[in-house]
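Support request, please re-run this one:
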Amino acid sequence: MDILQAIIIGLVQGLTEFLPVSSSAHLIFTQQALGLSDVGLAFDVLLHVGTLVAVVAYFFSDIISMIKGFFLSLIDLKDGKFMEEVRRDPYKKLAWLTIIATIPVGIVGVLFNDLVESLFTGITVPAFFLLITGCLLYVSQRMNSGGIDLSNITLKEALIMGCGQALAVMPGLSRSGTTIAAGLFSGLDKEFAAKFSFILSIPAILGAGVFQLKDLSGGSVEIDACIAGFIVAVISGYLAISVLLKLIREKSLDIFAYYCWIVGAVILVGSLIL
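Re-run finished. Output below.
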């Protein structure tokens, strides 16, 4: 893989990791279009680190507050004030809700990894689930923004979004699209649903990267191509978060629903004919 191919894949990874159009589907489509059968696990992990850097950078102050809240809540637990303080401090609550909501995707990733990986070998399954992503986005945008935000979110809403994230391990089913839709279905405010979706992605991306390390071995990607892909993934990921939050705040995500339907239909029909 040369530098240009690495930049293209890094751009696709960064944009589609956070825009609700499924990074897994687009990476499969892009690699096949570029004639790449395998980009190498090391490069794949590096791209995920790039998107992790992007989301951490964007929500840096929130994440620092959550980390502080988490460790302070451990002291509260020792002092017998855990539940009282979690209810009082929104960042303590958000830290624990993020941890708990990550459990479903962790279970799916560990128990069904081989099954899920087997679905990444072709383009038919990703194309089909891209159509499903479009349906989820379209229906969710027909709903009014709910009144649940950081101040009053409960374990129930967090787990619903967490289960949505677990379902999104399927290739073609957008992680951000599914979790945002799950949040809107459960009554979350639109902007907070998107923000919580991005925060939920942090342990999911980190966990996926760590899980892949056990299979890490040397690859054929040059170091300059790796660096280029990483930098592009960071920048494009950061921009994608900014764009999506602006769209969900001021307009709607219908454009992504139409996009998923068009691309999914074209790829699905093409895979069945050719």
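Residues 3-273 form one domain. The CA atoms of residues 101 and 159 lie 5 Å apart.
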